[in-house]
Amino acid sequence: MSSTTAKPRCDLRSEYDMACPRCGQADTLSVEITCTATLSINGTEDNGDHYWDEASSCGCDACDYRGTAGEFRINTVKAVQA
Ligand SMILES: [Zn+2]
């Protein structure tokens, strides 16, 4: 059961099945996240529970395409595992 698959490179396409629908860029996308924070007299401190889903707004850092995270989801058949 050893995985000997040598990924040429990890990107959003291989890790999250996400890529820009316009230019295909899959290195970095800007996604709007929701997280909670503890509010005290010292200000806010985020709890690190970042959350986002398909309806979150998302943008491509390369071509500036904007849409929802769902639009960036690659919904073709999963890539073959050679
Ligand atoms: Zn793009």
Describe the model.
With 82 residues, the protein is of the alpha+beta class. It has a domain at 19-72. The chain contains two helices and five strands. A three-stranded antiparallel sheet has the order 1-4-5. A two-stranded antiparallel ribbon has the order 2-3. A hairpin with a 5-residue loop joins strand 4 (57-60) and strand 5. The longest helix has 5 residues, at 12-16. The protein is elongated, with a radius of gyration of 16 Å. The mean pLDDT is 87. Zinc ion binds at residues 20, 22-23, 25, 60, 62-63, 65.
What is the topological layout?
Blueprint: H1 12-16, E1 29-31, E2 37-40, E3 43-46, E4 57-60, E5 66-68, H2 69-72
Antiparallel strand pairs: 1-4, 2-3, 4-5
The structure holds zinc ion (ZN).
